[in-house]
Structure prediction request, 278 residues.
Amino acid sequence: MLPENGLTGNGLPANGLAANGTATWLRRFHGGPGQVGAPGGPADPGGQVRLVCFPHAGGSASYYFPLSAAMPPWVEVLAVQYAGRQDRRKEPPIVDIGELADRVAGALRPLSDRRLALFGHSMGAVVAYEVARRLDGDLHVEVEMLFASGRRAPSRYRDEENVHTLDDDGIVAEISRLDGTDPRLLADPEVREMVLPAVRSDYQAIETYRHLPGSTVRCPVTVLVGDADPHTTLEEARAWAEHTIGGCAVRVYPGGHFYLRSRLAEVVDTVCGQLANR
Prediction:
């Protein structure tokens, strides 16, 4: 839920990116345009890719700092910073997935000068999917691949999920159950007061989201899921195939909802391998 990399700062603004709100929404932690370094790393295809990463409910751009650090130079990692947290904590959080996708898609539109792929974890997978629909559709920006991590297909719902209606203790209990945050952080009243509004708003956004029947994306979808994830079964992960005309592959890793922390190297290999084969 909260960043697991120990960062307390805001990351680096996406210096050098286009205007039109791009710098508001995106953070870059390593490298920059034209600074991709020497070729090398997993499955170097000889051409740069932008990988835009979308955080989970309650998460922030800095969650993807370790992923950015682990990527080879030919993958430029940009992380989305939702409103209501870290350097954007004074802004009201967005409680509608459609509105959030509209805003992020508009910020990404100027970045079509190179190959573009999207990676989202948990709630972020659904946001990334809706952004891909908008880019592929009215904005005429090609998305090369969508990586959907730790989330069932957009049309699969669970009626019992109502975390956003719980009191603060209930939300903290859910966060702790998923092992997404050091519980000592949430024991601090000041930390809870600072972060829980954004967490609640994100849960409201994803728990009230409903997929538009019949809608799909054109790009291939690679689904990544932990074999012990309480929020995504293998059947629910495979159902992503219903939402793309570009083909769907599923990769299963040992671990729960936040399998990413312990399987980072394998995830990097999967992402690079899929992008290099495009």
